[in-house]
Design goal:
Length: 370
C-alpha cells in the first residue's frame, strides 16, 4: 500500500488554492456536497458511472456539477489521478466511494482527499472500532463470545454487511441456531433497548474557538480544534420499525417472519437537551482517542458519526462509528435544528467546503487533507 501522507505536500505544492475543484462520486451524499461546495464558491466535479446518475442531477440544478467525469467503472479513478491533480481536485470521500473502490484502493488513491483516509483502517473492523471507542470513553453493547451463553435478546451481525442486511435478533441459542448462517463471520451483541440517535459531528482541527477538544495537541504544539454537532438522524429500517403492527414476536414467528434491519431512509431528530453534554463528551472522547490509536496518528478530521442507543436510564450505548459524512445527514441539506442556531442554510457538505476554504486561505490545506 502506497504511503500517500508523504506525497500530500508534493501534490499540494502544485495546487493553486484559488482554483480548487471539489470532486465527488455522484451518489450517497453528493447532492449536499456539491451544493455546499458551490455555496462556498468552489468549482465542482461529479464522477459517475451510467447516465442515470447524471440525469438525476438535472432535477437539482443547485447541485449540478460544473463538470462531469463519466467512467465505465469507478476503479478507473485510480488511473485518472494525474488528470484530477492537474485540475486541482480535492476528493470528498463518502461511504459509496470507499465501497466502489475498495478500502485499499481508496487509501492508495493518488489525489488529495478531505479528512484522514487512514482512519478507515480503524473504522473498518469491529474490534478496532471497539478499541477506539472504548478508549474514548464510550460504553458499547456487550459481546457474547459463545452462542450457548445467549440468555436475553441479542443482535447477530455479519461482517461487511452494510446497512444492517441479514442481521437478526435472537432470544436464546435455539433462535440463534435457527437463523444463523455459519458460512459467514458474525458478531453477537447484547440487544440494547432504547431509542436510536445517529449523531453527525464535525471536528475542525484549525478552529481555535467554540467547543474545544481537550487532551490533544495540534501540529504546532497548541491545544486546538473545534467540535461541532451538525445534525442527528434516525434510520428507517425495514422491517423492524413496523413489526409491532403485526402483533407479538411470537405471532410474527408463527407467520414465519423475522425482524430485519435494512436501511430505507432517514428522519431528522433532536436529542433531549439535557443529554447534549454527554453527547459532546462522547464526540470529544472519540476525537481525542483517534490521535492515540497509533504512533503519529493524525486522528479524526472532518465529519464523523456516533451511532448510539439511549436507554430509559438515559445512558448512551454507542454501537458504531463512521469516520466520514454519513448518508443520514441528507436530512439536513437545508440546515438542521443545531446548525441553524449558528448559521442558516448550512449542511454537512457545505461545512466540509467551508473547512477547505478556510484552510486554503490560511495555507493549511495539509492539516485537513490526506
Ligand atoms: P452501517 O455500516 O450502514 O452503519 P452496519 O451494517 O454496520 O451498518 P449497524 O449500524 O451496526 O450495522 O447496525 C444496523 C442496525 O441494527 C442499527 O441501525 C440498529 O437499528 C440495530 N442495532 C445495531 N446494534 C444494535 C444493538 N446492540 N442493540 C440494538 N439494536 C442494534
Amino acid at each position: 500500500m502506497a504511503d500517500t501522507s508523504g506525497q500530500l505536500a508534493e501534490w499540494l505544492s502544485a495546487y493553486n488554492p484559488d482554483e480548487i475543484t471539489i470532486g465527488v462520486v455522484a451518489s450517497h451524499s453528493a447532492l449536499q456536497i456539491l451544493h455546499g461546495a458551490r455555496a462556498e464558491g468552489f468549482r465542482t466535479l461529479g464522477i459517475a458511472v451510467g447516465e442515470g446518475r447524471r440525469k438525476m442531477f438535472k432535477a437539482f440544478p443547485g447541485a449540478e456539477p460544473d463538470e462531469w467525469l463519466m467512467l465505465d467503472d469507478y476503479k478507473q479513478m485510480l488511473d485518472k489521478a494525474e488528470w484530477f491533480r492537474e485540475r486541482n481536485v480535492i476528493i470528498i470521500p463518502h461511504g459509496s466511494l470507499v465501497e466502489y473502490l475498495g478500502p485499499d484502493n481508496f487509501i492508495d488513491l493518488q489525489v488529495p482527499t478531505f479528512g484522514n483516509r487512514r482512519i478507515l483502517k480503524w473504522e473498518a473492523g469491529r474490534d478496532t472500532q471497539r478499541e477506539w471507542l472504548e478508549l474514548g470513553g464510550c460504553t458499547m453493547p456487550k459481546l457474547i463470545d459463545d452462542p450457548h451463553d445467549i440468555d436475553g435478546p441479542v443482535i447477530v451481525k455479519y461482517a461487511g454487511a452494510k446497512g444492517g442486511r441479514g442481521y437478526f435478533v435472537a432470544r436464546n441459542f435455539r433462535d440463534f441456531r435457527r437463523n444463523v448462517d455459519l458460512e459467514e463471520d458474525f458478531t453477537i451483541q447484547e440487544y440494547i433497548l432504547g431509542t436510536r440517535y445517529y449523531m453527525q459531528f464535525f471536528y475542525d482541527p484549525i478552529c481555535d474557538d467554540g467547543y474545544q477538544v481537550e487532551g490533544m495537541m495540534s501540529r504546532d504544539g497548541q491545544e486546538l480544534g473545534r467540535l461541532e454537532l451538525l445534525t442527528i438522524d434516525r434510520r428507517d429500517e425495514a422491517n423492524v420499525d413496523e413489526f409491532y403492527k403485526l402483533g407479538s414476536l411470537r405471532d410474527l414467528r408463527d407467520m414465519g417472519l423475522e425482524p430485519s434491519f435494512v436501511v430505507t431512509g432517514n428522519a431528522e431528530v433532536v436529542l433531549r437537551e439535557s443529554l447534549l453534554p454527554e453527547a459532546f463528551r462522547l464526540g470529544e472522547g472519540a476525537v481525542a482517542a483517534s490521535l492515540e490509536l497509533e504512533e503519529g496518528a493524525r486522528g479524526m478530521i472532518g465529519p464523523f458519526c456516533l451511532e448510539a442507543i439511549v436507554t430509559d436510564k438515559l445512558e448512551f450505548r454507542v454501537f458504531e462509528v463512521s469516520a466520514r459524512i454519513v448518508a443520514g445527514s441528507n436530512v439536513s441539506i437545508g440546515g438542521s435544528p443545531y446548525m441553524n442556531i449558528n448559521e442558516d442554510n448550512m449542511s454537512v457538505g457545505r461545512r466540509i467546503a467551508r473547512c477547505i476554504r478556510k484552510a486554503a486561505d490560511k495555507n493549511r490545506l495539509h492539516d485537513i487533507l490526506s
